[in-house]
Amino acid sequence: MATVGEIMERDVPTVGPEEDVEAVIAALRRHELPGIPVVNDGGRLLGIITEADLVLREEGSDLHLPHYIELFGGAIFLEPLQRFEDRLRKAFASKARDLMTEDPVTVGPGATVREAARLISSKKHNRLPVVEHGRLVGVVTRLDVLDALAHED
C-alpha cells in the first residue's frame, strides 16, 4: 500500500500570514489553485485559504447580527456569536492571517493512501496539506489518491 509521502506534490505554492488579500488572489490565479496553504517563515502550517474564504456566502452576505431575544433587559443570542465574528473578520480581511481557516484538516506523509482517501471523502475536501512535525511538506489531492488507488496491485 502506497503512502501519502510517495504520491504527494512536494513543490507547493504558499503564502505568508502577512501577505495582503490581493497577493493571495494573485497566487491562487497564477498557480490555478482552489486553495493555498498559509505558512510562517519556518514552513509551519498556520492555516489554509480557499476560494470559499474569499467569497461571502449568500446566507452571510448581509452580515446580519445573529437572531436574538430580549429577556429581562438583556439580549440572548440564538446563534453562536463566533460564526458571526468569523464572517465579519473575513469580510473585512486585509491580510492572509485574517482570511485563513486555522487548523485545517491535514494528513501525515506516512499515512496510507486509503487513510487519505477516507479523510478526503469524509471532510469533503479536494486537497489536503501534508504535514510532518507541524511543517508543510506537500499536498495530496483527490486525483492523486484516486490515481494511486486505481493502480494498486
Looking at this protein, list some descriptive labels.
single chain; 153 residues; alpha+beta; CBS-domain; 3-stranded antiparallel beta sheet; 7 helices; 7 strands; 35% helix; 22% strand; globular
Subunit organisation of the chains: single chain
Total strand segments: 7
State the secondary-structure class.
alpha+beta
How many structural domains does the protein architecture include?
1
- Going by CATH, the architecture would be Roll
Rg over CA atoms: 18 Å
What are the segments in which pLDDT stays under 50 over at least 5 consecutive residues?
Answer: none
Instruction: State the separation between the terminal residues, measured CA to CA.
Output: 9 Å
| CATH first level | Alpha Beta
CATH topology: CBS-domain
Largest sheet: 3 strands, antiparallel
Overall mean pLDDT: 86
Q: Can you characterise this structure?
A:
The chain is α+β, with helices and mostly antiparallel strands and 153 residues long. The protein has a single domain (4-150), classed as Roll (CBS-domain). 35% of the residues lie in helices and 22% in strands. The protein is built from 7 helices and 7 strands. α6 crosses α7 (142-150). The mean pLDDT is 86.
